[in-house]
Amino acid sequence: xxxxxxxxxxxxxxxxxxxxxxxxxxxxxxxxxxxxxxxxxxxxxxxxxxxxxxxxxxxxxxxxxxxxxxxxxxxxxxxxxxxxxxxxxxxxxxxxxxxxxxxxxxxxxxxxxxxxxxxxxxxxxxxxxxxxxxxxxxxxxxxxxxxxxxxxxxxxxxxxxxxxxxxxxxxxxxxxxxxxxxxxxxxxxxxxxxxxxxxxxxxxxxxxxxxxxxxxxxxxxxxxxxxxxxxxxxxxxxxxxxxxxxxxxxxxxxxxxxxxxxxxxxxxxxxxxxxxxxxxxxxxxxxxxxxxxxxxxxxxxx
Length: 302
Fold this sequence. Notes:
This protein has helices spanning 12-23, 57-70, 134-137, 153-163, 182-189, 282-301; strands spanning 2-8, 28-32, 74-77, 80-85, 91-95, 100-108, 112-114, 130-131, 145-149, 168-172, 194-197, 200-206, 213-218, 221-225, 229-232, 236-238, 268-270. 23% of the residues lie in helices and 27% in strands. Helix 1 runs parallel beside helix 2 and helix 4 (153-163) packs parallel to helix 5 (182-189). By secondary structure, it is of the alpha/beta class.
């Protein structure tokens, strides 16, 4: 079957794009390699998405998927490993299983995953003490002791936000100076409940089903921190390699596209966290999804 629009990625951007495209009367297939809903499914509670006082990330992902499918979008759980554009402009997504799906237009919404520290049991503790978004999850650690790992502006901003809610914030950085904005460093230095741990790295995560502490190495000396939350802020990585021939990428690998979600290739659009942008939140991903879908519809109707 030749779909009007193929959407690669089933997170908030991709599923919002599917809903908008279906409401415009286009046939749509959403291809997702892991779990529909994207990274937000890692979050135990979401309180910053319009229209919902509180729900889990899994519930939000389910609602986005249900809405898209109720509108008539089709979905496939497959990993796209190659993308072919035929002379007539038809885009073919080649999947790891060998399956192929075709569409006239393509929306790339593969997101960007947080870089992990590479520790044993780190993935298992995601959502149970290991977090990647202080804006999303910081409120759940109010009055508790937490740590932030990273040295860029994102880590400094996370530590500032957490210092307003948490009893104690340890900021762990592997170098002897921060890479982030100096004004953020100065603001943190004024917070009595923030402590810098420089020239240090996390060696081990403690706790069985929930995080209870960290073992760190600082200047070749081991110490243990008792914390209930670890916010990892060592950057993100988009997975745009398969689509590199269809869009320009910046030095970090993000799609170099503006708010119009256009790319250099006719009929190819990009949405969500895989696009170069300054704010990556649920709401901006959903906004991109609607913009990309409507742009694709206009291109199809031209």
